[in-house]
Structure formats: C-alpha cells, structure tokens
Amino acid sequence: MSQTSQSTVNSESHKMGMLEFVTLMALLTSIVALSIDAMLPALGQIAVDLGIDNVQHTHLIVSLFFGGMAFGQLFYGPMADDKGRRYAILHGLVVFAIGTLICMLSESLTTMLIGRIVQAFGVSGPRVATIALIRDKYQGDAMARVMSFVMMVFILVPMLAPAFGQLILVWLSWRFIFVSFLLIGVVLGVWFHLRQAETLTPSNRIVFSWSQLWQSSLVILRNKLVMFYTLSVGIIFGAFLAYISASQTIFQQIYDTGGKFPVYFALLSFSIGFASFINGTLVMRLGMRTLCTWAMIGWLCCSGLLLVLCLYFQGIPPLWIFVSVLFCAFFCIGIVLGNINSLAMLPLGEMAGLGAAIIGSLSSVFAVVTAVAIGHFIDASITPIALGFTLFGGVSFVLYWFADNPSHA
Question: Which of 90, 161, 283, 316 could form a Cys-Cys staple with 37, CB 3.0–4.6 A?
Fold first, then answer.
C-alpha cells in the first residue's frame, strides 16, 4: 500500500469511535459463535436428512468445527503478520463463504463435516486477525478491557443464535441457516473493508518464510508463561465446548424442553455476557490475574456442586437446579475466557499475529480433545458433563496456577 493510500485509510479509521470499533470486532469474532449456535436447533433435522443414526456423530458437526480452526489459525496467523490484519480477515471471509456453500449443498455427513472444517478454516482469519488488530491498538489491562467489551457484544450472538436458527426452521429448512451465514459474512466483509484501517505498519511486518516461522514459533512455544495459559484456557474451554456440543441433547432429549431450548440456552449465554461486562468494569482496578483466579475457583466450586447433585439425583437434577448452577458456573467462565487469552498474548509484542495463531490453534486442539472425551459419554445423563467440568477444570486451574506463579513451575 502506498503512503498516500495508507494515510487516507488511517484518516478514515480515526472516524471510527469506540462503540463502532467494539461492535465490528465483536461481530467479526462472533461468526464463530453464529456458525455453531444457530445450528444447534437444526441438529435433529440434519441427522434425519443426512441419515445420521448415532447422536455422538451429530455432535461432531459442532466439535470438529474447532478442529478446523486449529489448522486455520496456524495459516492466518503468519498471514496477518506478513500481509496485514485486513488482508487476513477478508481472505478468511471468502474461504468461510466457500465452506458455507459446501455445507448448504451437502447430502451426507462426510460432506457436511468437510464443509464445516472449511468454514472453520476460513473463520480463523477474522478470529486471529481481530485479536492481533486489537493487540496493535491496546496493550495489557487496556486490551483486557476492550476484549471484555468485545465479548459483551459478542455474547449477544450465542444468546440469540439458537432462536434465530429455530425461527428459520419454522418457515424453511436447515439449509437456509447456511444461506443466512453467507449473507452475514458478505455484510461484515464490506463493513470492515470500508471502515477499518490497517493497524500493522509496513515497518513492523514480518515477511513470511519457513525458517522465520520456525524460529518465531520456537520463541513462543518455549515461553512457559504463554504455554501454561494456552493449555489452561484450552482445557477449560473444552469442558465448556462439551456442553455446547451436547446442549441440544441435554435440553431437548434429557430434559424434554422442546421449543424452549433457545430460551434456556440464551439465559445461560446471558450469564457469560454479564460476566464480561463486570470484568470490563473491574479489570483496570483489580487486574486480570486477580479476577481470573477467583473466577477459576468459582468454576471449580460450581462444578463440584453440580457433580454432587448429579450423584444425588441419579444423573438428572431438577431442571431449575441444573440451570441455576450452570448460570453461576458460566458467569465464572465468562471472566476466565475474557482474561486468560489477554494474559497469554501479553508477552508477544509484534508477533501478535503468529502468537494469536499458536495460542488459538493449541487451545482449540486441546478443547476438541477434551470436548470429544466428555461428549462420548453423554447419553441419558448429565453426570459426564459435571464430572468433566470438575476434572478438567481442576487440571486447568493447576496449569493456570503455574503460569500465575512462575516460581512454582
């Protein structure tokens, strides 16, 4: 980009206020949540249309999405550092559109999963590059504050997405959910292209080379602080992902809530959004680590309580008790997720693009493995969810504690 065009874009970007910036970043990031949560009410219909007999195989439509993101982030991270944040985001949206078309036209589970992986690969561009873009503009607790407000807007999507998907199913088939993904991706791409300037100056770009990628990756992988935080967030998010993957089974089959499933899902999603708002108002005063430590302890307490209740009620506690405990647990996870990623990104400086890629990729791999391990046992009881929350939450806390207290590592 020439100096003149760069200056013009920078001048235009100055017109974007914090509200528009946070909204745009949140919506770009939320394509991930939209691609997952809007599909949840349709999983039963998809299973019938594509001839899927095993409920665990249906869960793969959700969990393998994060597997595709693991590879996509490794591709778009270096691209964001070489070509710039804008290029990576727009390129990713194009690939996302291709994957969406594959899913929309699929006639088998295999084709559907291929499309989902391509979708996830593409959406990794906006996910990685928006985090790096925010890291370019904000640092430390200021970044955590912006990320919290981004997550607050972002959380509206999982709150509304199941109802959005359910509404489409009332009038149309599940394939039109993918049509909506396509239209939303186009709108966001045009908005971003017109309004957001490039934040990575040419002098700070890292020209891609395999040797440089290897050297930079080693620097990041050898950073114990980054790795402990990355493993910690991947494992605890994996437990949460197990719930998301199985939420349709839990609410519509185990608890037989029928069409009220989006309502319960939205209520629990609100808990995460509320936590993000609280985190955004407190993080500059109390700091990321203090808030995150107490939130992880709260997650473990809620998970342990849920496990006790499952054992007492033979695997299925009353619905109101189950939702109440999850509401408190998800409040804690909202604070945890809003801070650990920022803690992991803190030492990375100009390697923010590659750093976000490696952090996102590794955490996604561990999340998928954790979610599949838990989801494999979910059938007619929520005890596997409670046990997974407790067990993997404990492992996550130990890893976080070593990162938070380097002298212990």
Answer: 161
